[in-house]
Amino acid sequence: MTKIDSVFWAYTLGWAVFFGFYLTLAKRSKDLRAEVERLKKAREK
Amino acid sequence: MGKRALLGAAAVALLVAAAYAAFFVAPTERTMGDLQRIFYFHASCAWAGLDAFAVCFIANLLYVWKRQGRYDWLGVSAAEVGLAFTTVVLITGPIWAKPAWGIYWTWDARLTSTFVLWLLYVCYLLLRTLVDESGRRALLSALFGIFAFIDVPIVFGAIRWWRTQHPAPVIMGGANSGLDPVMRKVFFFSVLATHVFMAFLIAERYALEKIRGEVEELREEAEAA
Hints:
Chain A has one helix at residues 3-44. Chain A is an all-alpha fold. Chain B has one domain (36-224).
């Protein structure tokens, strides 16, 4: 691996980790919102 | 636009500017050449990770003292974000090390204490999945979080107290350390950018934990009815 390859991979993989983390946050948030709606509807019945 | 969206937009703008500065403003280092440009990303992520764990530690102490759920939410949010930053540190470090040292990893004091820190906060998050009752889960994880934080000053001090394979500190490293003035400005700008990003991620994670609290309340209500 050349020095430029290392710089490229360090930045790319680093940002991939943050992007993946942010995606899991968005997914978990969406699932929990759906669960809140479901529980609220069940309470109203 | 909400406060969190504004913070996110500011974080992205600062991070793009920090990357530009690391590649096009900072001078090329004499010995390592372009490889040294990893330092701006790696070291600023390390700094942000340690500060996220410090936020977690303060939140844990406040939870033990006041027993308010919001401190538990802040603690777990900061722990998860700190873990994301430390994961990046443990990935970018070895990528730098291979061309610089000829090896990806060595069990020196800084690298080992950072890996132990990562493991401790993985355990912190795992512990939370093992306890169902919310008050007990919050207290146990707060106590574990306080214990886990002991490793943070060890990580900080490792390259100051012991001779390590890891490079000596260039910031707060004593009389013989330091950075070229332009490199120093670029580095502190990167630190600012990663800290704004850290604050944004903690705010996002905290919002998630708030919804989880709502779900737990609704479930308890449904069970009681």
